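Listing S7. Sequence submitted for prediction.
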Amino acid sequence: MPGSSMNIVIGGEAGQGLVTMGEFLAKALVRAGYEVLVTQDYQSRIRGGHNTYAIRVAPGTVRCPRESIDLLVALDANSLFLHADRLAPGGLALVDLAIGLNGAPGLMIPIKDLCPKPIFENVAALGVIVRLIGLAPSWIEGLIGEAFRKKGDDVVAANLKVFSDASTWAKDQLTHDGPGVQSAKAVKFSCLAPSSRSEKRLFLNGNEAIAFGAMAAGANFCAFYPMTPGTSVAATLISEGGKMGVLVEQAEDEIAAINMALGASYAGARVIVPTAGGGFGLMVEGVSLAGMTETPVVVVLAQRPGPATGLPTRTGQGDLNMALYAGHGDFPRAVFTPGTPEQCFALTYRAMDQAEKWQSPVFVLTDQFLADSSRSVVPFDLSDLSPVADPGLSPEDPAGYERYAETPSGVSPRLIPGFGDHLVVSCGDEHTPDGHITEDLGVRVRMVDKRMRKASGLMADVVPPDFTGDEAPSILLVCWGSTHGAVLDAAEKLRFGGEIVAVLHFGQVWPLDPDQFLPAFTHAKQVVMVEGNHSGQLAKLIRQETGYAFKKVITRYDGLPFTAEYILARLYRTSIPSPSKEIS
């Protein structure tokens, strides 16, 4: 089948260095011209607990994780137990001699013989991996030099020697038929197909792309309280935003974070607030305050399975309804749902603009899979970005300035206090056009109508869903957010099997413009919604807004990301390897 790839899974306990090993390998593959997609699966503990770092790599496009494993690097016996049954035909397990293969096809590495100290074990494993997959050792050697240069030449030399010795050992195990594995049965193992790409790529995850999109849009203030999986948006702004003039404030809680952001926005800052479901629950009154005061704010809601703490380090799409309905009273909003790092960048940029343009809260929904999923990305083109809307500084008539003046669009002139003789009055109560509290019920109706007129402008600015595939398909797969890659892979497999297939991906789920998607539904014989929650929240929203009812909804809510295999199994009611083995 076109687009063949290799799936490398490194498994072990937190604290064993599997992320460091995985990042070295993934970065080396990107530098060598390959496309990669990294999926991290980790438990909610600092040390211990079973974790994996999976790298799907190919010379061509890689969109989503894969169920089967080609190379399993088991740093402990539990990883072999949990994942050996997922080895693809011709797949191989790498284990230490002390662990043993327990009947799995693979290669036992004499780690203690190759490493003078335990601290070098991951470097030794990299030496074996690189030799097996056919990657030039120089890519890893360059990264070792970069990583350990500050520790001195002796440390660099020691790591390079262990890497070289392990690579040489692995070479000695290979025959023209494949690895001379230390098990009862020899197993062939195919190297990576060569890559011809030479152009540079970025290696970044979805949350990093969100942070870069915000900075490109001029974000200069971020308030947050740490909560997985949203924290890395703020962490990226901390590490990269200083040179861009970004101030990041870790608040004492989420209530303080959203209100700090609103105060900063009132004073003229361009703000972003990253959080997760539980933290966003505490921000709801602040969101409503933004609606009443017409204060721009972008909230990044990184989803994880709930309710309550749920599965804090797993993924899901269960917070769409919360983003749609958070905040009491009626006020307009927009909700963006990027599916790739490229969309994370572009749609966050757009969210910053929409918040400023329409003076409303705007939400960017991501999730743990997209947040932690690092990929090779073409550097973003900044030349085509349109200017982000700006507030004003001073009016022609300061004495007559009204912050909430009634306008045909519903957008009132937003000025920044302190830049002239004008007075900016704002409050959370219902107010008159000049911002003062009122209990005049006629004024109340006019102000609600004024605010809601902005919904028409938000509707006119809606990003249409992305349609790919065949016109008049027999199967139309509909999705939103991070499910996009898995759905595209599933469509490709269906098409390869002779089906006429198309995909419709929603990068914005509110407002909904039926003219942008209902015709595609009517032209398809079967329309299937794919989303990562139990109730089919977008499917129900579309039915609520248009009357269209999906006859089939494929859901996933076990905390794992979608794969093409999972979608096809649910589409045809077949089985896939269970992810639910007992984890010790």
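Caption to Listing S7: primary sequence and predicted structure tokens for the chain studied. The CA atoms of residues 204 and 329 lie 39 Å apart. The domain at 6-179 is CATH 3.40.920.10 (Pyruvate-ferredoxin Oxidoreductase; domain 3).
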